[in-house]
UniProtKB/TrEMBL annotation:
Keywords: Leucine-rich repeat, NAD, Plant defense, Repeat. It holds the Pfam family NB-ARC. Residues 13-178 form the TIR domain. This is TIR domain-containing protein. SMART domains: AAA (SM00382), TIR (SM00255). GO terms for biological process: defense response.
Length: 1024
């Protein structure tokens, strides 16, 4: 990448133009003519007059290429037949990348596409040359260079009538370029990777032709914002007659306005007030095509003074703003924001090497040290340039010394640039948040840190947001706070500097192990210390006296990992807000350790057996983490922790009891009991937690039941209980309004995928329920049953067969989303069964009647009619009786369901379902039918009847159904069955009244004829 603070001048060009050509093709005519024309315009042009150029570029020629501002590459038919020309081209393209040299190709009697692809006669001659040269090492470099140069816009000689016309065009363009370059903004000597990054913004600008465009470049100090803005300005400035580049940080508001007006109007304008300046800019520039770059904006008032409401920006104008504060760009509502990213390792090493060694490669003896410096800079161009320049021409011993010094003392030049962002923070609270994070909270969860710093009175919600907007911190994966190492070092340097003393005991924060050990051993701590962190190795046996903290009365942040403390804990500060003490060595927290103001307690890997002997009242405690405490036997009583939001007890293998007072925690959001292998029960009170969002029980191998009371957890969004002894899914989970993710009993995934599978398995325990789970798996990759690979259905079948002893279940769908889940499940099942039945040919048909309610006479008549129809009909569409009012109304459906509207003004006595199926010796409807689901779309509920109920519906069953059906309700009845049964049709008959003499019309003659055709097919064996 690059840096705006590099030498602000172009490389010392010795020549204006370098000519690259193949002499035997072009020397006598075109090249000589071109060279003469360039010379006549006093354009300094380097031309190699030697006919026999040998095989290797000399140092003089390499310097000539590097010292030329423009390279003209004349690509003729034989150009690629010369190793000399090819090596020249490789060097030229390297200079274009490294030094920003302009390359202009001339395709002399050759097609540009043939050069790009090395095809046609040009490609044939290139291949013929390769047969004789055998330089396979250079082959890829040559091909790449030819491809890249052919991608550059140049001139095709075939488009000009004469060479003279072509020469005139080239010379005019070169002259214009050189004259314009006098107006170029100076950028870095080594624009490594600059063009690639700038191109994204240039593409956006060019893609918005005719519109006014406002763009922002955002990033931390030293990341190259100014340089990329200058590069873009130089690249597109020739398209704008009116243009201006303004450095905002060095000017007042009126000065900014006068500078802009002077640049675009080319005359001095006196502005007497900001309002007057806004009005003049809007009046003079409205409708004009203008390029404006405002660099290093630090406050919104600067932008408001220049652009007002931005409504005048139009007509193809382009405004580019660079800033460290993205909030300013949001306020201006820019069209595009480019975020400056850190350089990758290869780019960093190349840029550093150019500054340190004057070439793109490192010196072999300093290669390892160079990589260490690059790692320290972590992709920041400013640091790479400053340190590379400083180390140039120095001995290896000096390099080693500088690296050792950087570990403790950051480079002054780099820190000065970075500190601008810190000094620009508007208040001391934001500065305190930054310093706390750079010493204690890098890599910690943002929400966790926010809670703690809010408890310190720092208003961290807005403070952390401001730091992110100003590129001082960033949010990385899993919502963790991150910070560039150089910014971290800058912050820590500020702490040392602000105390104006070399005594660590008087610093506001202590983080460096040697300094902390010195303070604790010599008991030199003072009230100035607000935070202290000492992280010793797990095997440490160092022990300190508690009275060493006696004078640290302002201590609010304390981290003591694997530190042993003896003596009276009353010496510890009463202002503590964060206690992180991994490896806490005592069996319980002493009663005189005052934690009344603490927000978060982190005692992972502790030796605790109890948290404390007597219950404590910690009014403000929000986070309690006792994970990996191998000896912890029970939780504390929770009544004294009213603010607790997160309880984390992961991997506490001795934990036997969760105190029943956990039900008193009205603010609890998270319980994590993962791998608490001795815990066998949960207190019933836990289900009273209406605020709980996440419950994790995975690895609790002795927990064998989750109560139906789970539904009382009305905020529960995530339930994870893998590898437990739970054999029963609480059916109440289906009614949960909030549940979003489940991992339980082999069901893993978002609830809208898992719940339909649970419903299916519950109502159809004899079916291969995993086949349906597998179907959902194809729709959502997150649904992966634990036992899918083993195909172990026994546990699941047993689970759902024992789920409920009720004959039926009525589910009221409280939300539309749950009802949609059922619909999705039924639709998928429907398509799956339809697909399955389409595999079979017609065979002998059978029917099975399911009667619900008191309608014996109608049922007998209906049954007789169906039997007669089966004897004479080929198709179920023909033999199923239709409406026979006033006794019944008929509704036919497909292989899975049938729908109807409940009639008005008619008293139903019952419902009869007719299932028509293909008979086989192996399967009968009696054995294969599993359940009926009656879905009332109007009332948004569904009723499930399991197989045992289907055999003998009683009056109670009918009353439960009819009480749930109202006039004009839209209803659909689904019948589920195992795959062995091939169902062709389902019909429903709504039974209305009794009659002794119900007659059905005889089958028409055409039905008899169809039956005869059906018999013929059987004779011809036209079936499965």
């Amino acid at each position: 990448m690059w840096s705006s603070s590099s030498s602000e001048s172009n490389p010392g060009w010795k020549h204006d133009v370098f000519l690259s050509f193949r002499g035997e093709d072009t020397r006598r005519s075109f090249v000589s003519h071109l060279y003469a024309a360039l010379s006549n315009k006093e354009i300094k042009t380097f031309i190699d007059d030697r006919l026999d150029k040998g095989t290797k570029l000399g140092a003089e020629l390499v310097l000539a290429i590097q010292g030329s501002q423009i390279s003209l590459v004349i690509l003729s038919l034989n150009y690629a037949s010369s190793r000399w020309c090819l090596d020249e081209l490789v060097e030229i393209m390297e200079c274009r990348e490294t030094y920003g040299q302009e390359v202009l190709p001339i395709f002399y009697e050759v097609d540009p596409s043939c050069v790009r692809k090395q095809t046609g006669e040009f490609g044939n001659r290139f291949q013929a040359f390769l047969q004789t040269d055998h330089n396979w090492f250079g082959y890829d470099g040559w091909r790449y260079a030819l491809k890249e140069v052919a991608n550059i816009t140049g001139w095709d000689s075939r488009n000009f009538r004469t060479d003279a016309e072509l020469v005139e065009t080239i010379v005019d363009h070169v002259l214009k370029t050189l004259i314009m370059d006098m107006d170029l903004l100076p950028i870095t000597d080594f624009p490594v990777g600059l063009e690639v990054r700038a191109q994204e913004m240039i593409d956006f600008i060019e893609g918005q032709s005719g519109k006014g465009r406002v763009l922002g470049i955002w990033g931390m100090g030293g990341s190259g914002k100014t340089t990329i803005a200058k590069f873009i300005y130089n690249r597109i400035r020739d398209k704008f007659k009116q243009r201006s580049f303004i450095e905002a940080s060095t000017r007042g508001h009126i000065d900014l306005q006068e500078k802009l007006l002077y640049d675009v109007l080319k005359t001095k304008v006196n502005v007497h007030s900001i309002a007057m300046g806004i009005s003049m800019i809007e009046k003079r520039l409205r409708g004009e095509k203008t390029l404006i770059v405002v660099d290093d904006v630090t406050e919104f008032e600067q932008l408001k003074a220049l652009f007002g409401n931005c409504k005048w920006i139009g007509g193809g104008s382009v405004v580019i703003i660079t800033t460290r504060d993205i909030h300013l760009l949001k306020l201006l509502k820019v069209d595009f924001v480019y975020k400056m990213e850190e350089m990758d390792e290869n780019e960093s090493l190349k840029l550093f090497s150019l500054h340190a060694f004057g070439e793109a490669e490192t010196r072999e003896d300093l290669n390892e040290l160079a990589r260490k410096v690059v790692a320290y800079c972590r992709g920041l161009p400013l640091a790479l340039e400053v340190l590379g320049s400083y180390l140039r021409d120095r001995t290896k011993k000096v390099w080693e010394s500088v690296l050792l010094r950087l570990e403790k003392i950051p480079d002054d030049q780099v820190q000065k640039k970075l500190r601008i962002s810190f000094d620009g923070l508007s208040n001391s609270l934001e500065k305190d948040i930054f310093l706390d994070i750079c010493c204690f909270f890098i890599g910690k969860n943002r929400a966790y840190v926010t809670e703690i710093l809010n408890g310190c009175g720092l208003y961290a919600d807005i403070g952390i947001t401001v730091l992110i907007e100003r590129s001082l911190i960033n949010v990385e994966k899993n919502n963790k706070l991150g910070m560039h190492p150089l910014l971290r070092d800058m912050g820590r340097d500020i702490i040392c500097e602000s105390s104006r003393t070399t005594e660590p005991g008087k610093w506001s924060r202590l983080w460096f192990e040697e300094d902390v050990l010195d303070v604790l051993k010599r008991n030199t701590g003072t009230e100035a210390i607000q935070g202290l962190s000492l992280k010793l190795p797990f095997t440490s046996r160092d022990c300190f006296e508690a009275n060493a903290f006696g004078e640290m009365k302002g201590l609010r942040l304390l981290q003591l990992d694997h530190v042993q403390l003896s003596g009276n804990y009353e010496y510890l500060s009463k202002k503590l807000r964060w206690v992180c003490w991994q490896g806490f060595h005592l069996k319980f927290i002493p009663n005189n350790f005052d934690l009344k103001g603490v927000i978060a307690i982190d005692l992972k890997y502790s030796n605790l057996r109890l948290l404390w002997k007597k219950p404590q009242v910690l009014q403000w405690l929000k986070i309690l983490n006792l994970s990996h405490s191998k000896c912890l036997r029970e939780t504390p009583a929770f009544s004294g922790l009213p603010s607790l939001e997160k309880l984390i007890l992961k991997d506490c293998p001795s934990l036997l009891k969760v105190h029943q007072s956990i039900g008193d925690l009205q603010n609890l959001l998270l319980i994590n009991l993962k791998d608490c292998t001795s815990l066998s029960t949960l207190p019933r009170e836990i289900y009273k937690l209406k605020s709980l969002k996440t419950l994790i029980l995975s690895g609790c191998v002795k927990i064998d039941i989750l109560e139906e009371d789970l539904v009382q957890m009305e905020s529960l969004m995530t339930l994870i209980a893998e590898n437990t002894a739970v054999k029963q899914v609480p059916f109440s989970i289906v009614r949960s309004k909030s549940i979003g993710y489940i991992s339980l009993c082999g069901y893993v995934g978002p609830s809208h995928n898992v719940i339909p599978s649970i419903i299916w398995s519950w109502m159809s325990p004899r079916m291969n329920c995993l086949s349906h789970i597998h179907y959902f798996h194809g729709t959502s990759s997150s649904l992966v049953p634990v036992d899918m690979q083993n195909n172990d259905l026994g546990d699941l079948a047993q689970l759902f067969s024992n789920l409920s002893n009720q004959r039926s279940v009525l589910m009221q769908c409280d939300t539309e989303s749950l009802f949609e889940q059922l619909g999705k499940f039924l639709d998928i099942t429907k398509s799956e069964i339809t697909s399955y039945t389409s595999q079979f040919f017609k065979h002998s048909l059978e029917s099975y009647l399911i009667s619900i309610g008191s309608c014996a006479q109608q049922l007998n008549t209906l049954s007789k009619s169906i039997s007669e129809g089966l004897a004479t009909s080929e198709s179920c569409d023909e033999f199923l009786p239709g409406d026979h009012r006033p006794y019944w109304s008929a509704h036919a459906g497909d292989a899975l369901s049938v729908n109807f509207t409940v009639p008005e003004n008619c008293c139903m006595k019952g419902i009869t379902l007719c299932v028509v199926y293909l008979s086989t010796p192996e399967n009968t409807a009696t054995e294969c039918l599993n359940s009926i689901i009656i879905v009332n779309y109007t009332k948004c509920n569904f009723q499930i009847f399991k197989r045992d109920t289907l055999i003998s519906f009683n009056d109670v069953d009918w009353q439960s159904i009819i009480s749930n059906l109202g006039p004009r309700d839209k209803v659909e009845i689904f019948v589920t069955y195992s795959h062995g049964l091939v169902v062709k049709k389902i019909a429903v008959y709504l039974m209305y009244g009794e009659s002794i003499n119900m007659e059905i019309e005889p089958l028409p003659e055409r039905k008899k004829n169809s039956f005869i055709r059906f018999l013929k097919k059987i004779v011809m064996c036209d079936f499965w």
